[in-house]
Amino acid sequence: MLFLARMLLMGLHFILAGVLGLLLGLCRPFNPDNSRLCARLYSLPALCLLRLRVKTDVKSLFTQEQACVVIANHQSNYDLYVLGRVVPPRTVSIGKKSLKWVPFFGQLYWLAGNVLIDRGNARKAKQAMLETTETLRNRDTSIWVFPEGTRNLGKGLLPFKKGAFQMAIAAGVPIVPVCVSSYAGRLRLNSWNSGRVLISSLPAIPTAGMTMDDLPLLMQRCQELMQQCIGQLDQQLAKA
């Protein structure tokens, strides 16, 4: 019964947040800080409705003095609510072009200045990546990417795709990994308290001076650091 009530309230919240976010986007279209505000709009009420406790340690994410590429593990659709509370100022994300057609959410996602990529069209996808590189270099705007490219369902990191790391090297900006404890499939949505999630950001990894020859080692380093951090977060929750 509690699960059904929660899902109904979450559905209503999704629509309301979408409408408010769309109005914000229409008032100041493509402002790069729209993403942060819309993320909070979705996240904070949802975490209260779910009674999901999220503890964060993301100092390195909010003390960046220049644009960066933020990479995070992608577990489920609930990432919108879990990670929405830690999106830093002037940060946009990369998403599938098909998101544009999701009622309310898709339109505000586009108006928030996020980058929509047609993954089925290599030429357009490459052009979008070049635009994000220019954004990182010249517009004081960071890019948030899920380097796995799809949801891992809380079963461990999937192999990383190259795009985020190519952007960082091309723009010469640091990479900031954000790690979320494994929660997908473990939420108790029919209980009063749905569970606990830990979020931690790692120190920035510089890419200045790197070339594409450094790409494989950079990807491997980031994946190993994130896997280790996620394991530590899971251990903390297990001991609590």
Automatic annotation (TrEMBL):
The answer on whether this UniProt entry bears the keyword Repeat reads: no
Q: What is catalysed by this protein?
A: a 1-acyl-sn-glycero-3-phosphate + an acyl-CoA = a 1,2-diacyl-sn-glycero-3-phosphate + CoA
State the top-level EC class.
transferase
For this protein, the parts annotated as crossing the membrane are none
What GO MF annotations does this protein's record show? 1-acylglycerol-3-phosphate O-acyltransferase activity
Annotated EC: 2.3.1.51
Family, as annotated: Belongs to the 1-acyl-sn-glycerol-3-phosphate acyltransferase family.
Q: NCBIfam families of this UniProt entry?
A: AGP_acyltrn
Query: Does the UniProt entry include the keyword Lipid biosynthesis?
Result: yes
| A single GO cellular-component term on record | plasma membrane
Q: Where is the Phospholipid/glycerol acyltransferase domain?
A: 68-183
PANTHER family the record matches: 1-ACYL-SN-GLYCEROL-3-PHOSPHATE ACYLTRANSFERASE (PTHR10434:SF11)
* Family matches, as SMART domains: PlsC
Quick one: which pathway? Phospholipid metabolism; CDP-diacylglycerol biosynthesis; CDP-diacylglycerol from sn-glycerol 3-phosphate: step 2/3; Lipid metabolism
Which protein is depicted? Answer: 1-acyl-sn-glycerol-3-phosphate acyltransferase
Q: What is known of its domains?
A: The HXXXXD motif is essential for acyltransferase activity and may constitute the binding site for the phosphate moiety of the glycerol-3-phosphate.
Q: Name one GO biological process term.
A: CDP-diacylglycerol biosynthetic process
Q: Which UniProt keywords apply?
A: Acyltransferase, Lipid biosynthesis, Lipid metabolism, Phospholipid biosynthesis, Phospholipid metabolism, Transferase
**CDD domains in the record:** LPLAT_AGPAT-like
Species in which this protein is naturally found: Aquipseudomonas ullengensis
